[in-house]
Amino acid sequence: MKAPVRVAVTGAAGQIGYSLLFRIASGEMLGKDQPVILQLLDLPQAQTAVKGVMMELEDCAFPLLAGMVATDDPEVAFKDVQVALLVGARPRSKGMERKDLLTANAEIFTVQGAALNKVADRNVKVLVVGNPANTNAYIAMKSAPDLNPNNFTAMLRLDHNRALSQLAAKTGKAVADIEKLAVWGNHSPTMYADYRYATINGESVKDMINDHEWNRDVFLPTVGKRGAAIIEARGLSSAASAANAAIDHIRDWALGTNGKWVTMGIPSDGSYGIPKDVMFGFPVTCENGQYTIVQGLEIDEFSRSCINVTLNELEEERAGVAHLLG
Ligand code: NAD
Ligand code: LMR
């Protein structure tokens, strides 16, 4: 039996937490042979609800669940964790944009970044889900100067998965056969889902669709505004699909993608002209617990203009939180 991996989940009493924890404990994230210890963080007033979720986790008798801790103290929750899913934050409601949450949520990530810096495993893999996810991940990264900045990532996988489903529906092909999709930039309506390089069984998706107006006027707005459409329909923001994307993100990062492209929000290394450190969605492949940006893609004029819009938004968000980062 492998040694258990310590996994922190914040916002454990929330709706994403409820869709996430059972799947982590059943081995869907780190593998069916990998025991886990769940370290659950939520606010003091949510501790009773966390206890209820723990009772249900117990009642599943998951063979891989090697222990659980519930706490309202980030330094307890993050002690020695190798994976940290930072979900806990306020969600937006109807009529809000994700960046409207910036000031409400930013402070959470300075505190949690500092706590990770102090007590987490030095190779911890951090995924920020709480919105605005890219800028919150940037804040956490900057608040953890002793950890490798590359350990901090933001969730663009939901946008990636949404784009895959839209492309499968448009082409009448299977989601599983679509390869080489990229989503650039911010987890916001400005993200640029780019299928110029995508293939289905080796055939070009762009050639199959061959409709620039559909791309610009239907596909990009549908993917970009999907979160708002779900809030409108459900009265609550997406939860099960968000949890699913978080599982996909960490599983692929930890266990590898076998050469397949996925999208991760990561601190830029300057690739594709994105300034260093901006937490940006890039196409990556993962191997041996490391991600690598897919290089050498040509960026045409339309793509560059889309990438500039999402980059400008991230630069503005970053300027808006600069005062929190000393
Ligand atoms: P929710 O309101 O159901 O749950 C949030 C939980 O976080 C609550 O239990 C709350 O008590 C807890 N919390 C708040 N502040 C905390 C703190 N400082 N420390 C620990 N826990 C804290 O919300 P939800 O639907 O689970 O969504 C959580 C976040 O995820 C929101 O910001 C939402 O916008 C975001 N989200 C992101 C994506 C994405 O693709 N990146 C997708 C869906 C939702
Ligand atoms: C989503 O994309 O569904 C989430 O980020 C929630 C939201 O506010 O849109």
Distance between the termini: 45 Å
Secondary-structure-derived class? alpha/beta
Estimate the strand proportion: 15-25%
- Ranges where pLDDT stays below 50 over 5 or more residues in a row are none
Order of helix and strand elements from N to C terminus: EHEHEHEHEHEHEEEEEHHHHEEEH
Shape: globular
List keywords for this structure.
326 residues, alpha/beta, six-stranded parallel β-sheet, three-stranded antiparallel β-sheet, 14 strands, 19% strand, binds (2S)-2-hydroxybutanedioic acid
Gist?
By secondary structure, the chain is of the alpha/beta class.
Structure characterization notes:
- It is a single chain.
- This protein has about 325 residues and is an alpha/beta fold.
- The protein has eleven helices and 14 strands.
- It has helices spanning about 15-25, 45-60, 75, 100-120, 135-140, 155-170, 205-210, 210-225, 225-235, 240-255, 300-320, and strands at about 5-10, 35-40, 65-70, 85, 125-130, 150-155, 180, 180-185, 190-195, 200, 205, 260-265, 280-285, 290-295.
- The strands form four sheets. The protein has a six-stranded parallel sheet with strand order 3-2-1-4-5-6, sandwiched between helices. Strands 7-10-11 form a three-stranded antiparallel sheet.
- α1 (about 15-25) links the parallel β1 (about 5-10) and β2.
- α1 (about 15-25) crosses α10, α5 crosses α11 (about 300-320) and α6 (about 155-170) packs across α8.
- The model has no long low-confidence stretch (mean pLDDT about 95).
- The chain binds nicotinamide-adenine-dinucleotide and (2S)-2-hydroxybutanedioic acid.
- Nicotinamide-adenine-dinucleotide (NAD) binds near residues 10, 15, 87, 89 and 129.
- InterPro entries: L-lactate/malate_DH, Lactate/malate_DH_C, Lactate/malate_DH_N, Lactate_DH/Glyco_Ohase_4_C, Malate_DH_type2, NAD(P)-bd_dom_sf.
- Its EC number is 1.1.1.37.
